[in-house]
Amino acid sequence: MEEEEDPTVCALITDLEETLNTQNQSQSLPFTLSTLQNLQSLLDSNDPQILSQLLSSLSSKSFSLSSLLPSLTSAMDSAPTHLSLLSSKIYLSLILFPNSPVFTLFNPISFLALLRSLRQAVKSPRCCPQEGNSSGVAKKRKGRKRGGIVACNNGGGDGDGGESEGGGEGFFDVRVFLCVIERLVFVLDLIHLNRFPDSLKSLVQTIVEILVLATSREMGGGFERLAGLCSKILCQVLKSEHGEEGETAAEVLKALAPLILMGKSQARSFALGFVKGLMVGAGKTSDGVKKGVVNLPRYLAQKAPEKAEPRGFAVEAIIEIVRVMDVEHQVGFAEYVVKMTQGKASLRLLGVDLILNLMMLLKDPFIGVGLDCKVKDSWGFKCVEALIQRCSDSSSGIRARALSNLAQLVGFLSSDDKNHDVLKEVTGFGEVEVEVGVNDILRKRCMDEKANVRKAALVLVTKLSAILGGNFDGVVLKTMGMACSDPLVSIRKAAISALSEVSPL
For labelling alongside 489, which of 45, 104, 221, 439 has CA 20 to 30 A away? Predict the structure, then answer.
């Protein structure tokens, strides 16, 4: 006795046949909403008998699962958001189908359409959050078909059978969106993107883009889940089966760099956490990934914005990444920063800020790498020398910043007695002769044409007095005395304070 066919399968086959037979070679027609819902419901049922009926019925009509791709691709590429997302979910579900012909179903055109669907979904004007205003919608959905549609419905007003398809255009349902991302994670276990470098690159860029876009959406607590899924996808693509690990790591880090350089946001926190945690961890077993992480602070330094507040966020992010690197790579970056202070103005200013933070972050800055290295060869000594040189920079902003940072650094280092002699040496107050001593700089900077430079120089004098006592030459003292008559009250006060520190009253 023949088994009776499921009525849903019969209805679905009829709808599929009608669509597939009417489309021509130049244009693929998207499936209707009811067809997509029925198809997804069957795929979500996990009923081997019903699924077998579906395949058998398709075969009897001379169709296969791959016959559905053109219409699904068309819907993912150009249909309204609710249909596009549902089509994306079905496409991934077909690949995850037991004994599915994965290599037949997966192709770059459909995959890129899927990625465009995800990007457009997050950009859609209206949103149904994962939590929050779902109570009213839940009541309407009560009594709907199988669990797949209820748990992850097609979104918006179209979740109701009685509403028209047009009512859901541009509607972003977080639950469906997250279901698609979740299926994408599983699909990456089945496909290898090493043969499709453009698809891999687009996937990385899409994941990063939707993270940024999602920060401006009301996702009702869904962002944390989205971040977790995106993290899994980026970890997946770093595996060797998706391409050369070093090249993929560079692509991922390049995509994450703009997020890291952002102001405080969920996207920035995600990017920093991913690099410091997962990529540093992956670098322990992959030289390619490790090389990418080591080069990231240098790349960020080149891309850092010039304005004060964004530059401050960039410095903060760079230091956070350097903190988790091996000592040898930390020292290598410090030496790179010294070279930055000889470059263009934006890099010199950034280098001045980075030197202060590096000196305060890393241990034993004045200990050389080799056993026979002298203090003068240590990375810390070179950093302080570079900072002193910037005190005479052609840009007044950099001069002031360098003087201010040098004052902070002197105050920080002078708290440790073992640094006193090194500070005296590098600033030109020790026995070793240096190219440019702080005394020479202070003579000029205390009378600088820019008020912020003069004030910063006087603050430096105050900090230096803690380790040098009154060891300033007469010209500097005379210059400081003249500063007590400066037109600006704040500078007069700073000059009096500095004089009181370096000479008995």
Answer: 439
Q: Does the model's pTM come out above 0.85?
A: no
Query: Which domain, by its residues, includes 482?
Result: 441-505
Q: What is the DSSP string of 102-167?
A: HHHH--HHHHHHHHHHHHHHHH-SEEE-SSSTTHHHHHHHTT-SSHHHHHT---GGGGSTTS-GGG
pLDDT tens-digit profile of 4-39? 667 778 878 887 877 777 765 556 777 888 889 888
CA pair distance 85, 210, nearest whole angstrom: 14
Tens of pLDDT along 400-410?
Answer: 999 999 999 98
Number of domains in the chain: 2
Using only C-alpha atoms, the chain has a radius of gyration, in whole angstroms, of 32
User: Which residues is 171 bridged to in the sheet?
Assistant: 126
DSSP state for residue 470 in the 8-state scheme: T
Q: What one-character DSSP code corresponds to residue 279?
A: I
Domain of 484, CATH number, reads 1.25.10.10
DSSP one-letter code for 275: I
Model confidence band, residue 165 (pLDDT cutoffs 50, 70, 90): very low
Residue identified by tokens 């919608």 is 137
Residue 487: how many other CB atoms lie within 10 Å: 7
Q: Which of 191, 224, 253 is the last residue in one of the domains?
A: 191
Q: Which residue, of 191, 213, 235, is where some domain finishes?
A: 191
